[in-house]
Specification:
Blueprint lengths: L11 E5 L28 H13 L4 E5 L9 H9 L4 E6 L8 H7 L3 E5 L5 H8 L4 H13 L3 E8 L8 H10 L3 E6 L16 H12 L4 E3 L9 E5 L5 E5 L12 E4 L4 E3 L8 E2 H6 L5 H9 L32
Parallel strand pairs: 1-2, 1-10, 2-3, 3-4, 4-5, 5-6, 6-9
Antiparallel strand pairs: 7-8, 8-9, 10-11, 11-12
Helix pairs in contact: 1-2, 2-3
Bound molecules: S-adenosylmethionine (SAM) and iron/sulfur cluster.
Length: 329
Amino acid sequence: MILDQFQRKHDYLRISITERCNLRCFYCMPEAGVALSPKSTLMTYEEILQIARTFVDMGVRKIRLTGGEPLVRKEVDFIIKGLGNLPVELAMTSNGILVHQHLETFKQAGLQKINISLDTLRPDRFVQITKRNTYSKVWQNIVLLQKQGFKVKINVVLMNDVNLDEIQDFILLTKQMPIQIQFIEFMPFDGNAWDWSRVVSKQEILGLTGAYFGEANLLKIEDGPNDTASNYQIKDHKGSFGIISTVSNPFCDSCNRLRLTANGHLKNCLFSNTESDLLGAYRRGEDIRPLILETVKAKEKERGGWAHFEDPEHPDNQYKNRSMILIGG
Ligand code: SAM
Ligand code: SF4
């Protein structure tokens, strides 16, 4: 069992399988681009499977593939099928563009839970956010996944100055579709012009939703044990929506997540600015288990120890972390 010093059990591993992406979402990929790791320093697909197996032997029960965009990696089908042989719940976060090409692989590997990131239902706004014109493909693939019985969530990064006016439209989707919308707070990462004023709070989302659908129709529903979202439903809607307040109201007490970057570094928290080179140890033939335990033991109680989001001028906030595209969410 992988425990930290606060006795939190870590049984959920998110693996980034590529640093590359076919979109350029401004909140994730810095305007100037990112320096990609040399290919020789990235985990091969065999290394991904071997390292994942070690985590599973140590108690990991859920693996989510992410990136960059996981589906742009050439060997993604081998990786998914290989991980499908492990006794884990397999999930993926994707921008949805290439999903239709991999449905058989998902089915064979038992990958049922797919989060698709889509921040707007307006094609012109999609171009502004992602710098690419692929809205229709993403939407078609969401519908396709639904029809084929996958469990689909839509990840929406909400920002005051970008898509605040679409909260109702997203929730209206849940009327007929058994889908979950996840409203995610805009989070600060290297090069993404984060500003507290752009963050939309849970209170604001609930206020706008109650006003539009009627307070009496806004129902709180049960959250899962390690759920990062606070979940709600509009009365008689087939789907639901969740609010993930990572910045304003972190859910660190029940955190069970570990993150492995595409170059094989282990991060014990999304906001941590330290990481351990697991791949290096693995390639030197070392037992990586002590390094995993040591990394998790060093995990801070809350938000990577970064306690002063409220004050951008605070010295603790002049910190460096990877860009989101190099972590994987
Ligand atoms: N390319 C895939 C995708 O977009 O779903 C997987 C990688 S992406 C980094 C994973 C998730 O992180 C996406 O849902 C994305 O919206 C979210 N994300 C990226 N940057 C973010 C930020 N600054 N704040 C909040 N969420 C962010
Ligand atoms: Fe690519 Fe996903 Fe980042 Fe958008 S959020 S740039 S799709 S990795």
